[in-house]
Prior knowledge:
Elements: E1 3-8, H1 12-28, E2 33-39, H2 42-52, E3 58-62, H3 71-81, E4 86-91, H4 96-103, E5 109-112, H5 117-141, E6 145-150, E7 153-158, E8 162-167, E9 173-178, E10 182-186, H6 189-193, E11 200-203, E12 206-208, E13 215-217, E14 222-224, E15 230-232, H7 238-247
Parallel strand pairs: 1-2, 1-3, 3-4, 4-5
Antiparallel strand pairs: 6-7, 8-9, 8-12, 9-10, 11-12, 13-14, 14-15
Amino acid sequence: MSYPIIICEDNQSQLNMLQGIVENYIMFHGEHFRLGLKSQNPDEVLKYILNYKPNGGIYFLDYDLSHNLTGIDLAEKIRANDVQAKIIFITTHGEVAPKTIKRRVEPLAFIDKNQDFDEFRAEIASSLSIAQERIANANTIQGKNFSFKVGSQIYNIKLDDILFFEPSEIPHRLVLLTKNAKFEFYGKLSEVEKTNLGLFRISRYCIVNPENIVLIDYKTRDVYFDKKTNRRFSLGKGKKLKEIIANKGMNLDY
């Protein structure tokens, strides 16, 4: 899961500088972020939100946008459409902070334009790291994510995207297949079962997300996630599988 970064800054040179810092950060954290939009015009930001409906976007906003909308005005409109938004003000105006409290836009950070470049870049990186962590934590608390670690990187996969887990050919590792990707990480199926995400163990070797089953063949004991992707369930799991599907109001019998 990656989060869009949106930059709105009316000064072209500062916009380019911000873009460069963000793109350099994305090079090393590409699985978490993507540059969704950079613009000098708040109207383009609002159009982007209406078209793409981000949930958990990261917004770098200048306060003075040389527009009838200020950065705080824009932040209010962003907050109304993207409730998980992480808003970061890039400004020289020290009086912005109390105004944001009064307007209830809940910014993540205020970054001073006038500081040394290295410090400025470090604050951008820190803000992105905190934004990713807080969005991921919020999703996990809501029970919508499965989290795992590969090396030093933490991955947070939306439950809606998960198809199934099964053992890897490499000992002590699991394969996680999603709608658009495949991951391998160290873990046990017994640990996955304890996540309380509504997953179901259909056999000794496979745990599935019932929400993404599209067809069940009870004669061959296969569950299908699409025309080409299927896994077999154990003989004793058929009855429970029927109950789960029925409770969800789904009719997938073949």
